[in-house]
Amino acid sequence: MSSNEAKIKMIGQMAQNAGLIEDPQWLERLNEPVPLWVVLDLLLRWIDRTEPNGGGPYD
């Protein structure tokens, strides 16, 4: 396994651990192109998980 393949597999595993990838079959298809809506859905899920609850006071 090349270092690039190992990096791709590690990123896929991290995405699954973070709950961004729910279907384990995606881990076998990480090199395949995906529709833009899949990428946007993943980014929006990531933003929702990383941003603090917006609109509320910080104190």
Mind sketching the topology for me?
Layout: H1 3-17, H2 36-50
Describe this protein's structure.
With 59 residues, the chain is mainly alpha-helical. It is built from two helices and no strands. It is elongated, with a radius of gyration of 15 Å. The termini are far apart.
What's this model, at a glance?
The chain has 59 residues and is mainly alpha-helical. It is built from two helices and no strands.
Defining key terms:
single chain; 59 residues; 51% helix
Shape: elongated
Q: Name the structural class.
A: mainly alpha
Average pLDDT for all residues: 83
Helix content: 40-55%
Summed up, the helix count is 2
Strand content: under 5%
Oligomer: single chain
By DSSP, the count of extended strands is 0
From the N-terminal CA to the C-terminal CA, the straight-line distance is 49 Å
* Low-confidence parts: none
Order of helices and strands: HH
**Radius of gyration, Cα only, in angstroms?**
15 Å
Largest sheet data: none
